[in-house]
From TrEMBL:
Zinc finger region(s), FLZ-type: 19-63
Start and end residues of each stretch annotated as Disordered: 68-100
Protein family according to the UniProt entry: Belongs to the FLZ family.
Record-annotated FLZ-type domain positions: 19-63
Name assigned to this protein: FLZ-type domain-containing protein
Pfam families attached to this UniProt entry: zf-FLZ
Regions of compositional bias (Basic and acidic residues) in chain numbering: 77-90
UniProt source species: Datura stramonium (Jimsonweed)
Keywords: Metal-binding, Zinc, Zinc-finger
Length: 100
């Protein structure tokens, strides 16, 4: 009888997990089960071609910004060459090292 009680108490907390096809990824409108669903990048649903196109344009703009920032970083590192130390700046110690 204890086993049945433990099983029952485990089922009390049942929370609804929304399915990824429940709402448009951009505008959050509910997706109708009898209408077309417009997909992008495999698993991203949209309610209309307009919402999907808006997401595509935002992704392309973010990618352009990322590429510009990356090219600026790489050009900065190419122009910044490390300074070479001259022999006068190096400290040299002569002596004997004893290891115990």
């Amino acid at each position: 009888m204890k086993a049945a009680a433990l099983y029952y108490t485990g089922c009390e907390e049942h929370h609804y997990q929304p399915h990824f096809l429940d709402a448009c990824s951009l505008c959050q409108r509910p997706l109708a089960h009898n209408h077309d669903i417009f997909m992008y990048r495999g698993d991203t649903p949209f309610c209309s071609q307009e919402c999907r196109q808006e997401q595509i344009e935002m992704d392309e703009a973010n990618e352009r910004k990322w590429k510009i920032a990356a090219s600026k970083r790489s050009s900065r590192t190419k122009t910044e060459t490390p300074t070479k130390e001259t022999d006068a700046n190096k400290a040299v110690r002569n002596g004997t090292v004893a290891v115990a």
